[in-house]
Amino acid sequence: MWTLAWRNIWRNKRRTTITAASVMFAVFFSILMRGFQIGAWNDLIDSVLRSYTGYVQIHAQGFWENRTLDYLIPENDPKIKTIADLKAPIKQLIPRFESFALASNTQKIKGVIVTGITPEVEKNFTRLHEKIVSGSYLEKNEKAVLVSQRLAKFLNLAPGDSLVLMSQGYQGASAAGLFKIKGIVKLPSPEFDNQMIFMPLETAQEFYSAPGLITSWIVDLISADDMKKVTHTLSGYLPEQQYEVMSWHEMLVELYQQYISDEGGSLIMMIILYLIVGFGIFGTAMMMLTERRYELGVMMAVGMQRLRVSMLLSLELMFICLLGLIAGLLISIPVISYYHYHPITFSGQMAEAYKAFGMEPVLSIAWRTDYIFNQLINVTIIATIALIYPIYSVFRLNLTQALKR
To answer: How many domains does the chain have?
Structure first.
């Protein structure tokens, strides 16, 4: 039966070629579209998250909801130090001290987010030193700050100027200080670029009268794909009444909603593409059934069971779809590989738009097997659904009518 089905599809080479080609292009365009979408979002998300929040954070229980210094955690908590023993896919833990303050240049005043960082550690995570547009990077323990570019423009500040910060410290202490501006940094997210001030961790702890305390640990992952696994592992390991472990989905809700919305738009495009392919396969099946009605009638008249006839037709269509799937995969992989290692480089206004968000003006395609095989599976399912009615028609075929030429 397999040999017969294979021979049958080549009785009408044009129809077989056209149907297989439609499946091939559907696979090719769906893989390419999905790959570029995932690649673009991965670049955007990685750029935003590595500029500040990270993929996963550990806070004191209730800190993220209240964002006050009443929810601090010890910098040298033994439980945190033993996280390395879990052998989870974690590169490092990065301490942060984050709070709010009023920043003033004597003429203007604005609410800002003050973040205490470990300068050397941040070089390998946020690469903050690479985002400096003027001035220089921070040194450990110095009483100086980095100011985000849009905030510096609003307050009319430049490297070498002084900045007054006022806030409330730990346990109601007063926090006020004069800081030298060491440099100006450009952050990818406009929201962060409007309000960020960075200073050495020890300087922030001294300013807020909270020595040895921090607000959060940034969990630097080996791979972004490990986020859910790490979040689940840490949530089960750390005491729930003391710590909360949050992924970026929970911390940056608006960005995550934009991502989900874009996924929905992509899904609609995929459905339209699959419907076109499905109707193409359905049309081929109906043509095969109509053109070969007499042939099928003869086969059943000489004793071939209707089930075997329907299986023969199914095999023929599956062979055609398989040819399209294999061809689509063979032309997709080289294209994906090329654009993964040689991203499309933008120029002109598009390049400026990318740079405005602190991103490299390139568009790469994601190299992941999951979305590639998902498209193959989806097309296979569509082809199977398209076979239902033609197979049903075989069981309803009237032999007397079929044997009439």
So the answer is: 2
